[in-house]
Amino acid sequence: MRIGELAALVGISTRAVRHYHHLGLLPEPVRLANGYRDYSLRDAVTLARIRRLAELGLSLDEIHDVLADDQGKELREVLAGLDADLARQQDMIAARRARLAALLTEPDLTPESAVSPELAAVLRDLTASGSSFAALDRKLLALMDTVATPADRDQVLDLVRPLIEPDALARSHELYARLDDLADADPADPRVAALAADLVALIPADMATAMIAHSDAGWQGWMFDEATPAQAEVFRLAVITLTERTQ
């Protein structure tokens, strides 16, 4: 089949097909004497699986690894793998619809109503102090919960839960208040370094590891954009200290 027929069969554009060729995810098929690509049923199955895996939230590297495992398999096995991908996608859709159904029964909806009940409980405790900086943290966590896969959402909850233990929660509220006090301060204010050190002491080891591993994933940019210069400097110093500890 031609590239247009393949794209129509799978439900994507011919441009996307060429993009997957360029990324090395979809092997180049044989070409006819006239130079046109000639795609097979196996190519269509591979392309459909790329689309489904992408919709499931896998990165391009993860998709590449999955497809590499498919090499040498019989077409029936590949089709079975695609069927399993679709089943997972159905489960995700069903879970999302269940969350929507629960939301639609609430009399008063707010933008943060869409977070999972588990995270909502954590946010209630963690940001109950009324701190303006706590409100920023609440937005970031709500965003992470909204875009995360179920597995990632569970991981976020596991990382944050230690902060709502009684002793840690009291210290969290204290640090939020101190961050608020720095709203109009200069980044060179001596309180900045002291607060960064206390923040490092509060952060659980697993959260510290995750913060460093995902330091280029955008959360720091969001923090620096939303926070005042002195508040942003607190987190910059904290990340430097955490990074040095892991080396």
Q: Would you give an account of this structure?
A:
InterPro entries: DNA-bd_dom_put_sf (IPR009061), MerR-type_HTH_dom (IPR000551), MerR_fam (IPR047057). Residues 1-69 form the HTH merR-type domain. There is one protein chain. With 247 residues, the chain is mostly helical. It has helices at residues 3-10, 14-23, 41-55, 60-70, 75-104, 117-126, 132-147, 150-160, 166-181, 190-202, 205-213, 219-226, 229-246; strands at residues 30-31, 37-38. The protein has three domains: 3-58, Orthogonal Bundle (Multidrug-efflux Transporter Regulator, Chain: A, Domain 2), CATH 1.10.1660.10; 69-105; 109-245, no CATH class. The chain is 71% helix and 2% strand. A two-stranded antiparallel ribbon has the order 1-2. A hairpin with a 5-residue loop joins strand 1 and strand 2. Helix 3 (41-55) packs parallel to helix 5 and helix 12 (219-226) packs antiparallel against helix 13 (229-246). The longest helix is centred in the middle third of the chain and has 30 residues, at 75-104. The relative contact order is 0.06. The mean pLDDT is 81.
Uncertain segments are none
Beta strand %:
under 5%
Radius of gyration: 24 Å
Structural class label = mainly alpha
- Percent of residues in helices: over 70%
Oligomer: single chain
Mind describing the biggest β-sheet?
2 strands, antiparallel
Task: Sketch the topology as an H/E string, one letter per element.
Answer: HHEEHHHHHHHHHHH
Strand count: 2
Q: Can you tell me the number of structural domains?
A: 3
InterPro entries: DNA-bd_dom_put_sf, MerR-type_HTH_dom, MerR_fam
Pfam families: MerR_1 (PF13411)
GO molecular function, one term: DNA binding
Keywords: DNA-binding
